[in-house]
Design goal:
It is built from two helices and twelve strands. The chain is mainly beta. The chain has a single domain, classed as Clam (outer membrane lipoprotein receptor (LolB), chain A), CATH 2.50.20. A twelve-stranded antiparallel sheet has the order 5-4-3-2-1-12-11-10-9-8-7-6, covered by helices on one side. A hairpin with a 5-residue loop joins β7 and β8.
Amino acid sequence: MKGLLLLIGSLLLVSCAALPQVLQPAGPAVKTIRCPSPFFAEKTRLIHAIEVRTLGEMKTVMIGVTLTDPFARTLSCALMSAEGMSFFEAASGPSGLSVSRALPPFDAPDFARNMMDDIELIFLAPPGALTQKGVLAEGDQVCRWHKEPGGWIDVSEGRDGRMKICRYSEGGSLKRSVMLAPKTANPYSVIELQASELFNYTLIMTLIESEAAKDEPQLTK
């Protein structure tokens, strides 16, 4: 039994090895560490042009409309063609996920859930408990959250002001990497999301329009 426990412990240590180490700066510098926060503080509506790339090649271009409410932690989104034809509409929040429109291939199993999880990762502050604050090996300031029911989210800021959001599995495997725009008025002016799945893909999102939307209803019902 003791040998089995040692083996399990070793496997757990190996599985977590992929998580980047969060270092603690020496001296007074530790007091200056702050959690990078590109996330909106008010209900906001955004329109992005979205390029989908796989194997380094652009596969499709579409328009994405997103409505974020950080206080209610609700999201709604619509995907449409450049001509305005809507082929996907969904909303999510504490009460769950609802899909009101999903044309093929956007009706694939788990597509809606994965997409809404990606949107939450990009636009809403991480849920769960803040577990670490420090710097990464390259000097970026970072804060790490443990997300329930499992997984880790790092939000870091480089010396050039660019912010990065990474989501890891409970075992430490990188699942999503989001790079935001350099120091600009709106960090969401250019977003690059890289997904590590059975088939890896990249989304390049270029902002067309962004505005406060305090009284705007959800995009889907």
